[in-house]
Amino acid sequence: MKVRTDEFKARSAETTKNPRRQASLKLVYDGLHKGRIAAAEDTDDWEDQRDRARAIKWHTINNLDYYLDLLDKNVRANGGNVYFANDDAEARDYVLGVAKANNVKTVIKSKSMVSEEIGLNEAFEEAGINPVETDLGEYIIQLAKEAPYHLIAPAIHKTREEISDLIQEVAGGPRQEDPQDLTDTARALLRDEFRKAEMGVSGVNFAVAETGSIAIVTNEGNGRMVTSAPRVHVAIVGMEKLIPSMQDLSTMLRVLIRSATGQRISSYVTVVNGPRKAGEEDGPDEFHLVIVNNGRENLLKDAQLREAMLCLRCGACLNACPVYRKAGGHAYGWVYPGPIGAIVTPVMTGKKVGRDLPFASTLCGACKDACPVKIELPTLLLRLRSDLAEGKADPKEKSSPLLERVSIKAWRFGVQSPMRFALAGRLSSLMMAPLSRGGWVRWLPPPLSGWTKSREFPRIAGKPFRARFRKKQR
Amino acid sequence: MTQSEQIPRRVLLFVTCTVDQLYPQIGESVVNVLERQGCEVDFPAGQTCCGQPAFNAGFTEDAKAVARRFLDVFAGEDPIVVPSGSCGAMVRNFYLELFHDEPETLAKVRQVAGRLYEFSEFLVDVLHRDDLAAKMSGSATYHQCCHLLRELGIDAQPKSLLASVEGLEMREMEQSEVCCGFGGTFAVKFPEISTAMLNDKLDYAIATGADTLVAGDATCLMHLEGGVRKRGDTLQLKHLAQVLDEATSTDGVAS
Amino acid sequence: MADKQDFLRMVRTSLGVSERRDIARDDATSFFLSKDEVSQAADDIRADAAERRTELIDEFIHRATEAGWNIHRVANFEDAAEEVTAVVREHGATAVMRSDHDILNSVPLESALKAEGVDLEIAVREPSDDADEDLERRLSLREKSFDSEVGITGVDFAVAETGTVAMEPRAGSSRLVSLTPEVHIGVMTPEAIIPSLDELFALTRDHHLSGEHKGMINLITGPSRTADIEANLIIGVHGPREVHLVIVG
Ligand code: SF4
């Protein structure tokens, strides 16, 4: 997918002015965020589960080569194929190759963020193959030709009126606005695709190294369709999504699902152990697992940023994030929005071009509290800020504006001595005097005008606390 | 109170640069409240800033230089009280991050951080005063400042102090735990997002019908008050220390 | 094309580790439990579940109801057939399919449904050694599954923690019968109930390590649902809208 991280400021500002999007984003807090809190409260050993999930993931990531090797062996032992793709083009080409070899005309897809990363739908279309997204939310955004707005609720920004227009365009017939009717219509449309599709493409929530299995979590049942109805199943997985043992699934599913939707468990969890076994009544004859790097090694090779590889893509940090809930999902300019997106996107696709993302946070810490695997999201954001401000990881990445660097140096000089600090305060107070009324400043020049457009700024006190305290002591 | 022997008398005030320069009246209220509880407040005159502005902007080297200075200024044994969750979090949590590869400085950090208490935390957990026999009329709603709540885990303390003020009716606002949109330079870099967050916060506070919005951090108050003034709202903004000062002052008004 | 060895080398370089090294045991994951330990644990789980049966039944019914299952507790297989027939009757369904799960062979469904004028289709095909012919037969079974209005299956495990039923599709146990019809009815005995997902995956892992490897494990918890339109909860998207569990005994 095209990287548009450099448009964050403009696109987020636009979203704050769109009342329809703001109403949708409020649903994220009221529904998903509160749902997660309730689910956590309803789980006795919630903190233990999180700690355990984190430890499982850390162990796996720290030994990722070992578990990738094991996964590969076991998928093959189950009769499946494995392909290691270094970048998006390799992944696309492989999947297209499988489709062509099987004479595929229609592909049914269940939600896969990695397939968004690699632009798989566009590639299918160019090859004359019809890709059909079957998760209702993904189906809606496919009709709208948009990117997902959220990790687990891709069409959360669409109002029923907009969805109604999109569905009517393909289904014809009378206009429907009731969510139930719209769902029924989509169900009927997609049923035909399920019947005829020759190939299914799915994402993966967890890939189990020891048994060569993949687990897919869905509520609609499309994940089951995609893995059971067509002759060929291709699963695409980011290389971080491994866990060692099938027994680890219980912990991982618990924390993932409760954090994602607030359910104790989703309607369906589908554990695929390769292709249909001999004798089985149904299921695919061919199974392919495509393991994708596509820039993840940039996270892996940095001892601190590696922590972002623990991510389960549950979306809880988005729901918790007040910035995401104002900026909206598209502003983040690639596949992964919200706090985790502000970390992985710049690292995977280019820090400098995505330089606004790590700064687009108040560091309020709500994401960290919500994250099922306790990723220190604010710390990682701060780390990326220092890469960008002072070229911490690589001098070439340094991209702080000169004015900012000068201001910081001036500030540092000022606060290194109480006398200079007090003097600077006195001077600022004097400078602000003509601009202020009643102790408040109504206008400041750019770049500070960003503040005064919607807020007044307190005038620096003529008599700071230190002076008052001295006087009182005497 | 039987614990009086263990209760420290002398405290060092880390007033924060914001309070010093922008909200000196909050600092005075902190002193008044602490003195009324029998403390002797000292203000280390060398103090300026904890380094958070540079740290948050990604300038860790500059932040380190300022932080080192802070550690020297606040060396000693007496407890340190700070009327800010954010500056408290900087010292207690983020200094650990900042100096993670400097064991010697880390030892200093632990020593200083171990003595540093946020204002409400000090009153309730150290002085064991969660009822100051305070009295005040009116109604208030409490905004849970981010770093106070999530970095330091301080929430019950300010709430119990407010609840103990006789005559003050507390009203809970929707999304009271959600950030007000300040975030330091964030407010200037992303003014539209910041303002949208601020407006939500003020709308929720005003919807409670309370006359005062209370918070535990001067920086958040500055943001909120700046918004209230621009919008022309009548909502009053107060730091917890100001409420407690006013409500325990013998002549009924904050000095 | 990325070579596997190159890919693994990239990972090792990123991690700064060498190929030959010991993977330190970490008890956060169950990976390091030996096959015998897993088998032993599986036996213990079965014994424990048997002992706590009554408690587990209550918890399972509570959670399953919460998840949207319609629960029918019956005393015997004849009554189970009655319950199933009542659901079929209520829907006026004529296309009804069942899997060939062991438990269903004890339930006199054929006769009960026949009395309603419904021919019960069994979701099995005659396997053929000819690959094309076998595919043909499977596709025809798939068509029938899509055309069915009610699907009846057995249940391999039932999880009290979540109100989940789990099935391992195999010869006789189709993947689609519990998915494609609008109504799914699962038939189970209390012996299927285990405490939590921990036990479920310990048991399925034991199966796997013991060489009884199945193509899939399906966990089903209530009806198909979505919240993709303005966060409204809608029941019945691609899977069943209405789900029943008949607990016999
Ligand atoms: S960072 Fe944590 S909360 Fe955010 S999507 Fe990943 S696992 Fe979920």
Regions with little confidence, pLDDT below 50 for 5+ residues of chain C = none
Q: What is the name of the CATH class of chain C?
A: Alpha Beta
Oligomer: heterotrimer
Overall radius of gyration of chain B: 18 Å
Ends of chain C: how far apart? Answer: 57 Å
Strand content of chain B: 5-15%
CATH superfamily of chain C: NagB/RpiA/CoA transferase-like
Overall number of domains of chain B = 2
Counted beta strands of chain C: 12
Number of strands of chain B: 8
Low-confidence stretches of chain B: none
Q: Which structural class is indicated by helix and strand composition of chain C?
A: alpha/beta
The helical percent of chain C reads 25-40%
Per DSSP, what share of the residues of chain C sits in E-state strands of 2 or more residues?
15-25%
- Helix and strand pattern of chain C: HHHEHEHEHEEEEEHEEEE
Structural class of chain B: alpha/beta
Unique ligands: iron/sulfur cluster
Q: Which descriptors would you attach to this protein?
A:
heterotrimer; A: 474 residues; alpha/beta; Rossmann fold; 6-stranded parallel beta sheet; 22 helices; B: 255 residues; 2 domains; 4-stranded parallel beta sheet; 13% strand
Give me the secondary-structure topology.
The complex is a heterotrimer of chains A (474), B (255) and C (249).
Chain A: H1 8-16, H2 19-41, H3 46-62, H4 64-77, E1 81-85, H5 88-101, E2 106-109, H6 113-117, H7 120-126, E3 130-133, H8 136-144, H9 160-171, H10 179-196, E4 199-202, E5 206-208, E6 213-218, H11 222-228, E7 232-238, E8 242-243, H12 249-260, E9 268-272, E10 286-292, H13 296-300, H14 316-320, H15 324-327, H16 338-349, H17 366-370, H18 377-390, H19 402-415, H20 418-432, E11 436-437, E12 440-441, H21 449-452, E13 457-458, H22 465-473
Parallel strand pairs in A: 1-10, 2-3, 2-4, 4-7, 5-8, 7-10
Antiparallel strand pairs in A: 5-6, 6-9, 11-12, 12-13
Helix pairs in contact in A: 3-12, 9-10, 16-18
Chain B: E1 10-13, H1 17-21, H2 24-36, E2 40-42, H3 52-57, H4 60-73, E3 80-82, H5 85-98, H6 103-115, E4 116-118, H7 119-126, E5 135-142, H8 146-151, H9 156-163, E6 166-170, H10 186-189, H11 191-207, E7 212-215, H12 218-231, E8 236-239, H13 240-248
Parallel strand pairs in B: 1-2, 1-3, 3-4, 5-6, 5-7, 7-8
Chain C: H1 4-15, H2 35-51, H3 53-66, E1 70-74, H4 77-91, E2 96-98, H5 109-114, E3 120-122, H6 131-147, E4 150-154, E5 157-159, E6 164-167, E7 183-188, E8 193-194, H7 197-209, E9 216-220, E10 225-226, E11 234-235, E12 242-248
Parallel strand pairs in C: 1-12, 2-3, 2-4, 4-7, 5-8, 7-12
Antiparallel strand pairs in C: 5-6, 6-9, 10-11
The structure holds iron/sulfur cluster (SF4).
